[in-house]
Structures are given as structure tokens and as C-alpha cells.
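As a warm-up, study this chain.
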Amino acid sequence: MIVLPGDPLPEFEETKSISRGDPYNLTSMSLTTHTGTHIDVPKHFYDNGLTIDRLDLQCLVGAARVIEIRGRRPITRTDVEKHAIRPREIILLKTDNASLITKDAFDPGFSFLALDAALYFAEVGIRTLGFDYLSIEDAESRELDVHRTLLGHDIVIIEGLDMRLVGPGEYQMIALPLKITNGNGSPARVILIEEK
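Now compare it with the structure written out below.
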């Protein structure tokens, strides 16, 4: 699994094993709250921000729309405005990153969201924005304004989505994080159910 540069790699250690004579199998895990597919909440960038254990599950369960935007880096306000985004929507962006998510190494040339697009999502008032790479923000960004804009407007971010087999359209989404007390985020299993 790839991680952002500077983040620790996930580690798994078999601490109990039936094959070694233990009565059960048990694995110890060590990973950050932003490993793999994960959810960012305001606490990630704001000390007094909403934490993962207090997050309204309506941000993570319900109708979601997948929008495909290809050949764009960065993804700008103009790119997203044409999709008639509605208030309180859950939007999942499928980009050229779909081919990068399974690579062995982090690729800094990924598609990312421009600040003007983040401001547009904040103006419209969506509730959740999903993205198909480990970060929604340009790898070169030092100010991290896209994260600050979205999370500052209480827009939940889901990063690291594997969208390779998902087409644009309407779905029901279930994205369940671990309930970490005062957590700034959490790994999550995200499932889309196609609308019939």
C-alpha cells in the first residue's frame, strides 16, 4: 500500500498463531489515521474541529454522485461547475488517478483539486467530497488551503478511493470509519451500491 511521503508505512505483526501452538490467531496493527482509503474531518486541520467520533453519519451514508473528470490537473471550478452540484450532496470525483492508486510508489503527478474548486464546493454547501488518490491537494502545496477550505466549511473529505471499476452516476454510499475518540480521521471501508 502506498502512503504519502513522510508518513509511516503500515505494519502488521502476527502476535498469536494457531500454527505456533497458540489457541487463536491475533495480529497487531500499526498505521496512521490517514492510511489507505480514509476520512478527513475538521480536527485534521483545526484543533477545535469536529472529530471522527462525533461526525454525523449522514455525511458517510446515503445518496452519492460519482462525477468523472479526466485529463485535468488541477481540477478547477470550471471543471466542477458544469456538473450542477447541489447543496448537501455527497460528491465522489473520479479522475485520471484511477490508474495510479495501485502503483507501488507515490506519484506526485496526480490530479488534484484547485483552490477555486474547493471554494465552489464550500459555496454550494456539499456535505462530503470523495477523491481517488491519497490526497485531494497538490503534492507541492505547503499552505494546504484546499483541505483548510473544505474542512473549515465542515465538508468531510474521503481520500484514497479506488474508483477503477466505478462509472459516473448515482449510488448509495456507505463509508464507515473507526470510532476513534477525538480522532482527526480514520481508515474506512467505502462501499457503493448502484442505483437501479
